């Protein structure tokens, strides 16, 4: 097909033609976030698919956190809007790992790095995040690392 950014652009055109307002607005927001990241670099350049995925993961986390905040504040209609946008963003993210798969990858990363005890949380998280490679929410990974380190 091409790059992830090209896919987002193509899907934006399709959504615009189909008059899918939520999808159109969400894809515009995602492409804007990608462009902002490209311009923020010292030498403006195209982002790789991995870098675009990182931007999309960050945008998904924002939607998730905003939906939770709206829900807690009793603003159900705004929470529903954030969740709807999140479902559009998730179409472009790698498939999420199950809890068992996260546990296996974290265990392997901890064993490979020889990490033990709560004092190793920082380096262990870095290794675990690299192993998971954006296929699981950071909070899930952190919770699993903490559990396996016994902290």
TrEMBL record:
Gene3D superfamilies in the record: 1.10.10.410, Uncharacterised protein YqeY/AIM41 PF09424, N-terminal domain
Protein name, as recorded: GatB/YqeY domain-containing protein
One MF annotation (Gene Ontology) recorded for this entry: carbon-nitrogen ligase activity, with glutamine as amido-N-donor
Organism: Natronosporangium hydrolyticum
SUPFAM superfamilies hit by this protein: GatB/YqeY motif
Top-level taxon of origin: Bacteria
């Amino acid at each position: 097909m091409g790059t992830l950014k090209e896919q987002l652009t193509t899907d934006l055109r399709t959504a615009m033609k189909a008059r899918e307002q939520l999808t159109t607005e969400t894809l515009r927001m995602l492409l804007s976030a990608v462009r902002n990241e490209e311009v923020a670099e010292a030498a403006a350049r195209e982002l790789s698919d991995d870098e675009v995925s990182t931007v999309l993961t960050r945008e998904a986390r924002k939607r998730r956190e905003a939906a939770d905040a709206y829900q807690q504040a009793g603003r159900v209609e705004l929470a529903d809007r954030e969740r709807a946008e999140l479902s559009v963003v998730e179409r472009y993210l790698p498939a999420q790992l199950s809890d068992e798969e996260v546990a296996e990858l974290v265990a392997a990363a901890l064993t490979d790095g020889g990490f033990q005890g709560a004092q190793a949380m920082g380096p262990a998280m870095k290794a675990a995040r690299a192993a998971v490679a954006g296929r699981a929410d950071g909070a899930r990974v952190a919770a699993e690392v903490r559990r396996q380190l016994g902290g």
